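Assemble and predict.
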Amino acid sequence: AQSVTQLGSHVSVSEGALVLLRCNYSSSVPPYLFWYVQYPNQGLQLLLKYTSAATLVKGINGFEAEFKKSETSFHLTKPSAHMSDAAEYFCAVSTNKAAGNKLTFGGGTRVLVKP
Amino acid sequence: KAGVTQTPRYLIKTRGQQVTLSCSPISGHRSVSWYQQTPGQGLQFLFEYFSETQRNKGNFPGRFSGRQFSNSRSEMNVSTLELGDSALYLCASSLLAGSINEQFFGPGTRLTVL
């Protein structure tokens, strides 16, 4: 069975500071990994995904994530936070095509950006 | 291109009633998945449909059911509602089944059970 752990349910950053959101996964097979963002009263929007190609994945809105197999991690970063980055972020894992589109999500990290 | 639409957006029901939620995927998408989001349990997978067939099912009681029509639109039904069914129900569509296909999420239906 696969699982995802996101360290920190809430993160507060100053505008212009580094955003770092941590995600660790557990999977017995090579995983596919995703980061989604959810703004209030909206659905989820895909930020980026890892599908066994390059380990450093660049996404939308200046976000990127690095897949580290040895650490079973897929942390999300953004060099400079913007007020519009205030939202909740979810890391998710899927394992193989037989699992279809079933995603297992972490608990989410809510980001607050201070001016 | 229109996104995933879900109707209704908000719903209030009482315990014991049943409810049907609707999801229209992006045009051309054949896979529809449903998720339940609650503050306590987070995001949990309910089921996935592809070409009118249920491909995967999450760990939910039989009161939760779904179906997909030939035009890929999907409905989920919850019977004998319980207070704990209060949640945001999210629908996601993707072009094909398979875990590397990007899923596009709708805005959700917020269900409140009184």
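The CA atoms of residues 31 and 96 of chain B lie 6 Å apart.
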